[in-house]
Amino acid sequence: MLEIKNITYEISDRDEKKKILDDISLQIEKGKILVITGPNGSGKSTLAKILMGIIQPTDGEILLNGENITECSVTDRAQKGMGYTFQQPPRFKGITVKKLLEIAAGETLNEESCCEYLSEVGICAKDYLNREADAALSGGEMKRIEIATQLIRNSEYTIFDEPEAGIDLWSFSMLVKTFNRLKEKGNRGLIIISHQEKLIQMADEIMVLTDGKITKKGKADVILEQLHCDKLTC
């Protein structure tokens, strides 16, 4: 289980302290999908980066299977079973797509295996394997390749920061099918940050962040009804 206890994150805004996240607590079970949604600027991506150790919280703690990992590095968390996809994936000049997949896998992969993972995210694999994972690829292409690296890693918990960003509708439909397959397997926990309704509907639980605070949290069917009601001003 992944547990977040009383996470707070503050930044200095001139002479004042500004809370980006305010006392966030939740639990994520392995095999479940948690979708975090809410307005832009509500702290969703900040929370994702804190979960992965990219930034450190001002207060609170994070437990993975009972172990306190709050001060662990990104590398340590990856080794302990956590994965992360950026909203804007990094580029790797001089590294081919095939090599990037092999780094994620931790072993040499044949062409067939690479093609299988890339096909899951809507990429015609043979056209990409020997291309460099650099600026020559579009943001949407890099996004899908990065998601494929996380499929290969098979982490216990994987954080997807707006996985739908920059990809076309056909690729998005492939992505939804991939998430559904992962959910059916039940061998990893998924934390998905998204505004996309189809992804929100896949959730077991939904958390809504507003101005750094949890305004709604619970079973997906209950929260979806509340969100729908909010839109209709019930």
Notes on the structure:
With 234 residues, this protein is of the alpha/beta class. It has helices at 44-52, 74-80, 97-105, 111-120, 139-153, 169-185, 197-200, 220-231, and strands at residues 2-13, 16-28, 33-37, 59-64, 67-68, 82-85, 92-96, 132-133, 157-161, 189-193, 205-210, 213-219. It has one domain: P-loop containing nucleotide triphosphate hydrolases (Rossmann fold, 3-Layer(aba) Sandwich), CATH 3.40.50.300. The chain is built from 8 helices and 12 strands. The strands form 3 sheets. A 6-stranded mixed β-sheet has the order 6-9-10-3-11-12, sandwiched between helices. A hairpin with a 2-residue loop joins β4 and β5 (67-68). α3 (97-105) runs parallel beside α5 (139-153). The chain is globular. 37% of the residues are buried. The model has no long low-confidence stretch (mean pLDDT 88).
C-alpha termini separation:
36 Å
Profile the largest sheet: 6 strands, mixed
Kindly give the count of domains: 1
Shape: globular
Low-confidence stretches: none
Strand content: 25-35%
List its salient traits.
234 residues; alpha/beta; Rossmann fold; 6-stranded mixed beta sheet; 4-stranded antiparallel beta sheet; 8 helices; globular
In short:
This protein is of the alpha/beta class and 234 residues long. The chain contains eight helices and twelve strands. Strand 4 and strand 5 form a beta hairpin.
